[in-house]
Amino acid sequence: MTSPEARIDLDRSNRIDLPEAVFCESKTTEQCVAIVSDMIARGDDAVIATRATQDQQQALVALNPESHAYSTLTWRPRPMSSRSVAVVAAGTSDLPVADECRLTLEALGHTTRQFTDVGVAGLHRLLDVVPGIVSADVVVAFAGMEGALPTVLAGLIAKPIIAVPTSVGYGTAFEGQTALLSMMTSCAPGIAVVGIDNGYGAACAAHRILQTIGVEATSVDRDTPDKKER
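RESULT FIELD:
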């Protein structure tokens, strides 16, 4: 039985191809368990719980999630597609937010490749992994401090880039506000920016982009060499 305060939107997947997720923060452990249990029992799409506290995680693990990292848990992931996302974190301190994004993407059926500790303070580390990053269809970049990583990437690669400011940094980082404003005023054109620490929102944005990459685009790519020959 679900929590009496919750009205689960089981039809959301049919409307927008994104399942409703459980935002655990500010909910009781009992509410989280009841809602997730009801979604597993009544639905057939992926189930995603984010921002779970330690007590909530311990209770939700009893429901046998397929994946679990930091404060994110997922059940019943969709079949994996060939579309891929590069999850690029400037530092290991960004991993809780990056993993929220990665697990959400994998629950939605997308292949992910994670690149960690490639921030601009050691630019050579980023350059070393650019070939792997550019092989993905979409890039999600996470950075705190001054948030420069997405700007540098946008100057190097042509793939869609979603920037996620994180609440990491010394002094005037202001819990991610500096990174947010930096990303929003980036001199590199075409970067899309989500809110501070919003790994889940970034994953949903990447999913919407990937849904526009259809069979037609693939067949056009295959036909291009023949057209050139003619």
